[in-house]
Amino acid sequence: MTTHPSIEQHPDLAEMRSRFERATTTPRAQAIETLALLTGLYLAASPWIVGFNDLSTLAVCNLITGAAYCLCMGGFGSAYERTHAMAWCAIAIGAWTIIAPWVVAGSVDTTRTIVSNVIVGAVALLLGLAMAAMDIRRPIRLRARGNAAM
Hints:
Blueprint: H1 11-24, H2 27-51, H3 56-74, H4 76-83, H5 86-103, H6 111-133, H7 137-149
């Protein structure tokens, strides 16, 4: 009877984990994660910072989406290979934040809510795109160059 090693010991899997680990240890990745956490915290606290906490539907919406954004973008440093797909969720949260003043129930589309949500939503969306773009492009280019030199 032949026994096969587990998938955990496959050389390609070990190499992929190594690339993911290198991607999260770069200053760029750490800066994106830090800015994303600050963006999520601001989004959650924005009703009280900007002063629209009396508009309860948008205040609750921002609190929930800010907490969700922090959770989505917060795990990249420790487990990038398992949380990379969450960047797409963060992009959706950023897009939702931009349109939320016009979509949530009630008349909450005031100048303060629109300016705050559009700016923080755009920042959240861009940070999510930046994290999603950090995939594994750089190591593939290096590998392609190495093969061309052979």
